[in-house]
Structure formats: C-alpha cells, structure tokens
Amino acid sequence: MDLSLFSSLWAYSSVWLFFYYLAYLKFSNSAMVVTPILVYFVFLVIFEWLCYLYLPTILGIVLFSSVCWYVQSIVFPRRMLPVADKAVFITGCDSGFGKVTAHKLDKMGFKVIASVLDLQSSGAKDLQETCSDTLTIIQMDLTKSGDIKKAHQIIKEKTAETGLWALVNNAGICTYFGDAELSLMSTYRSCMEVNFFGTVELTKTLLPMLRSSKGRIVTISSPAAELPLPLLAAYGASKAALSRVMDTFYHELVPWGVNVSVILPGSYKTGTGNKIHWETQYKKLLASLPSEVLQEYGKEYI
C-alpha cells in the first residue's frame, strides 16, 4: 500500500475515533432522539469521502476535523446530569408553569416536591393521577409563615438522604389589571406579599439546605420587572423587587457554590391568563374605585 495513502487513511480514522468518543460522552447521558443525529453521521461519512477524494490530505483533514468539531459542539446535545438523587422543590404547581415543570421533572426522574395552594384543586389532583409515586404534593400559602415552616419540615424529611438540589420559585399572583392610580393599595400589598415577601422568606428558609448541597435557585420573574408595561404597575413593582433581591443572591451565594437564575418568560396562557379570571378582577375593581376617580376616568376607559 502506498505510504501516503496509508497516512491519509490513518489521519481520517483518527478524526473519526475522536469524534465517536466525544459523541459517546454526550449521548451517554442524553434524552435526545437518535434519529435526527443519524442524518448528521451520514452527512459526515459522505463529506469525509469528498475530502479524501478531491482535496489534498492536509487540507482535507483540517476541513473534515473542523466540520466534525462543529457538529459535536453545536448539533449534538450536551451531557445531562444524573437526576436519580436530585430533589427539587417547586412552588405554585396548581397550574401554569409550575404544574408543567413538575410534570416534566418528574418524568425525567427528579424527586419532585410540588406546592399547591389547594390540595383539592384540579391541578393538584391531576399531578397525583399522572405523576410517579416519588412526587410529593404539599399545601402552602406563601403569605403564611406557618405554611412555609411546615413545608420546610416536610422537605427536610423527604430529602434527608439526598439533600435539596434545587428550589424553583414559581408561585405568584397578578390581580386587578389597571393603571397605577386605579390599582388599589390592597393590590400593591397582595402582590408584594406573594411575589416578593413570601418568595424571599421561603428562599431564606431553604438556603441552609441549598448551601449544603451546592444547589441552585431558579426564580420566575417577569418582563414587567424590567419594563413599565401598561396596566401592570403593582405586579411589575413586586417582580422588580423580586428580580433585584435574586440578583443580589446571585452574587452573595457564589462563595457557597449556589447558582441563582432569574427567568423572564414571555406571554403564555397560564392560570392568570384566562378570560373568566380577568372579568372577575374587572368587576371587583369597578366596585372598589372611589366615585370621583371612576367619574374622572370613565367606565369606558376602565
């Protein structure tokens, strides 16, 4: 066999072996569907032969190696952490993001502890019926310190062997959709009680457990925390306060290895996004406004 031909084949084979090794590392802990990836393997086989037949050896090896590196870096999935011993506490799982997240993480194999406002709610019952036996549902009202303490005790018992790996601060409310002046002071207070004070109290309560496990805190905030969106003064103010304190936690918890993330989701149809909910809020707002304010703005505006 020609020496240059042998060297060329050896070089291409070396690239393939290294590529297969990287692919194995990523696929070994991945839940990604295999079928689309096979298309890329076929493409690489064809591309290798084109490089081998029509390009000088050095140029072909460099080009083929670059394409292989791009495919494994961009196309292939990243390695996923083992989840068997990972416990996650998620708040606000009656509906919306919390419920979907509890379903997803339970299906992936996490040990999920989900809080709901009412154990008899349709969302709580659906979680009980559709999730695995490892999922635990607890009732918790973020405005009640007693509920937070009870939840803390249950979480400690359920995670005695594994520790608490993550806290997902999802629970929140948005009431009385209206201008800043039209929003009642009770609206500002209720939003702050749930979206800020309650969430901060829960986070502080669970921090010793998260420090011990070098875990993470994921908090659902809102674009209204960053932008003065119309009709969301009370809600936006509470979420802005929440985002700021979580940003502070992000820096302060670095020495303990605790990761802190804040998510600003777009507009999704959740428990607070249905027509009946807002019609009820609208009627309550009209009934609560002072007559002079109602006359100044006009019922049509509101």
From TrEMBL:
<keyword id="KW-0812">Transmembrane</keyword>
<protein>
    <submittedName>
        <fullName>Uncharacterized protein</fullName>
    </submittedName>
</protein>
<dbReference type="GO" id="GO:0008211">
    <property type="term" value="P:glucocorticoid metabolic process"/>
</dbReference>
<comment type="similarity">
    <text>Belongs to the short-chain dehydrogenases/reductases (SDR) family.</text>
</comment>
<keyword id="KW-1133">Transmembrane helix</keyword>
<dbReference type="Pfam" id="PF00106">
    <property type="entry name" value="adh_short"/>
</dbReference>
<keyword id="KW-0472">Membrane</keyword>
<dbReference type="InterPro" id="IPR002347">
    <property type="entry name" value="SDR_fam"/>
</dbReference>
<feature type="transmembrane region" description="Helical">
    <location>
        <begin position="30"/>
        <end position="47"/>
    </location>
</feature>
<dbReference type="GO" id="GO:0070523">
    <property type="term" value="F:11-beta-hydroxysteroid dehydrogenase (NAD+) activity"/>
</dbReference>
<feature type="transmembrane region" description="Helical">
    <location>
        <begin position="53"/>
        <end position="71"/>
    </location>
</feature>
<keyword id="KW-0443">Lipid metabolism</keyword>
<dbReference type="InterPro" id="IPR036291">
    <property type="entry name" value="NAD(P)-bd_dom_sf"/>
</dbReference>
